[in-house]
Design brief:
- By secondary structure, this protein is an alpha+beta fold.
- The protein is 33% helix and 20% strand.
Length: 546
């Protein structure tokens, strides 16, 4: 077939037209896509219910995460500097005896409804949270404040130790000096809002404002354009809650989510080894531990620290993490998790050493478990807890011990813990504030027996050191030294079998920039950004499977 010059010209013209149209379509699609990133919501997937946004009543990590986009406290925690820094507060000062703390608020901070923040709003918020919360752990954070007993007993209408001195100054008076109170103020129970506004979701001061709820599964928050800090880069947050982690993961793979807060355990290893997803996968040690508590007042643990140490050396933590937990935890060798303020890098702690365990059993006068009655590991009824209990039991039996496991209903289990009525029990602990005190004082000070010290551990020397650490308001360095000394003694006494530290396991999309998870699992909402990828990246999203 012969092609004439006329036909060549026509074909060339058609090709040119096609390229021109393609270029226009490409540019239009890219423009529409990138413009959409400037206005669309940031899509968040959470595995778990978000049924409460009231700071006094939120309990789950999912509720705390979302509420943290709206509510703020007087201070925040700078993880890099390992210190508390101002947020709504401008500054503070302890009295010479450490028994009072005066905090000055920043001026011109507005609630979401436009009302200026005052010291009286702080007092009202704290007292309302105290009287509304149903969690004794939250109540305990107020217990060092003067006048708290009178308020608890209904003898006073307010907490006398919390005073609004003027419009921008609040003073907290303590029964005893409390150097860690500033860190406690990072807890949601101390978040501030406008209690006078009659709306259900109270106006706060955070970077995002509550807009709407779509059924029980979806929330919409919009940007606070009058935010007192750096203006958020996202225009809105669209939060969807999932019951099933696999369903949430499927939506992530289908590009419906910019951020997935929980990754299915069975997918973690795949994601970490996949070239496409390992750069989008976030792993971070959290201030959350998993241990087995030992009741030091009951047999066979009473007065036998050698036996308790033996059990700590007998556990292969890495094997359990690899076999059962998908790599979602790291081994825990002592009471304090890595990342907490006060963590001791030099702490030797406990690692898997079966020979050492056998040696200690002999010293404890139970060679190969001879003379020991059947040991029972008790846990609140859950398949995951059961699997871990069985794995620990199996490893202890390798030393010649007789071990059984027992599941209890959660309500009965909790009641038994509060009565220190269980010999060996599963204990998960999430820090109430980013400081070693949250683990050491809460779990091992004798004043906390039956509240959070479920091992009934009582060492007068440890009590004295922990009290001294709380009284040290002048030198953070000296306070940390005291906490490290207390931990050393606790490790020697071994009132728990320390097992794991939880890791955050998150996923972001290619569109996300500057999203950082801190050791409490929280985000800096004002920093997160949706970037503008090329159209090639847009087209690439159609092939997004692991």
């Amino acid at each position: 077939m012969h092609i004439t010059l006329k036909k060549v010209a026509l074909i060339s013209s058609l090709i040119g037209l096609i390229l021109l149209v393609a270029g226009i379509i490409y540019s239009k699609n890219l423009a529409q896509y990138t413009a959409n990133l400037d206005s669309r919501a940031f899509n968040i997937g959470l595995v778990g219910e978000v049924t409460e946004l009231n700071p006094a009543l939120i309990t789950t990590s999912e509720e705390i995460l979302i509420s943290s986009a709206m509510y703020e406290g007087l201070v925040t925690y700078d993880e890099a500097a390992k210190q508390v820094k101002p947020l709504l507060a401008k500054g503070w000062k302890y009295s010479t005896d450490g028994k009072s703390l005066t905090i000055t608020l920043k001026k011109n901070i507005l609630f979401h409804n436009g009302k200026p923040l005052t010291a009286l709003d702080v007092k009202k918020s704290w007292e309302h949270n105290f009287s509304t919360t149903k969690d004794w752990t939250n109540i305990s954070l107020f217990m060092s404040i003067a006048g708290i007993d009178e308020r608890l007993e209904g003898k006073a209408p307010d907490i006398s130790g919390i005073q609004a001195l003027d419009k921008h100054t609040i003073k907290i008076s303590f029964l005893e000096a409390n150097a860690v109170f500033l860190a406690m103020l990072t807890n949601p129970i101390f978040w501030v809002y406008d209690l006078d506004d009659q709306v259900e979701i109270k106006p706060a001061t955070g970077p995002f404002i509550y807009k709407d709820t779509k059924g029980k599964e979806e929330l919409i928050l919009i940007r606070n354009d009058k935010y007192h800090g750096s203006k958020p880069l996202l225009t809105a947050l669209h939060i969807k809650s999932y019951v099933d982690s696999l369903e949430a993961f499927g939506d992530y793979l289908d590009n419906r989510l910019d951020y997935l807060d929980t990754v299915p355990l069975k997918e973690i290893k795949n994601l970490k080894s996949d070239d496409k997803y390992k750069a989008l996968y976030i792993e971070k040690p959290l201030l959350e531990t998993y241990s087995l508590g030992l009741n030091v007042n009951s047999e066979p643990y009473a007065g036998n620290y050698l036996l308790r140490r033996a059990f700590n050396y007998a556990i292969d933590r890495n094997a359990i993490i690899d076999d059962l937990l998908g790599g979602s935890y790291r081994p825990l060798k002592s009471p304090l998790p890595i990342g907490v303020n006060g963590y001791n890098n030099q702490m030797r702690g406990y690692t898997y050493d079966p020979e050492k365990a056998e040696e200690l059993l002999i010293q404890a006068e139970y060679p190969k478990g001879e003379g020991l009655k059947v040991l029972t590991i008790t846990y609140n009824d859950d398949e995951g807890h059961q699997a871990i209990a069985l794995a620990v039991a199996q490893q202890l039996m390798e030393l010649g011990l007789q071990v059984e496991v027992q599941a209890l209903d959660w309500d009965y289990y909790k009641k038994q813990l509060e009565q220190t009525g269980i010999n060996c029990f599963k204990l998960g602990w999430q820090s109430d504030y980013p400081d070693a005190d949250s683990f050491l004082y809460s779990l091992y000070h004798s004043s906390k027996i039956g509240i959070s010290n479920y091992s009934a551990y009582h060492n007068p020397q440890v009590d004295k050191i922990l009290d001294a650490a709380r009284a040290e308001t002048k030198s953070q360095q000296e306070r940390i030294k005291l906490l490290k000394r207390a931990e050393e003694i606790i490790v020697d006494d071994a009132p728990q079998i320390w097992l794991f530290q939880k890791l955050a396991n998150k996923l972001i999309s290619k569109d996300v920039k500057s999203l950082n998870v801190d050791s409490r699992g929280l985000l800096n909402w004002a920093e997160i950004e949706l970037v503008k990828p090329s159209l090639d990246d847009v087209n690439d999203k159609s092939d997004n499977k692991v």
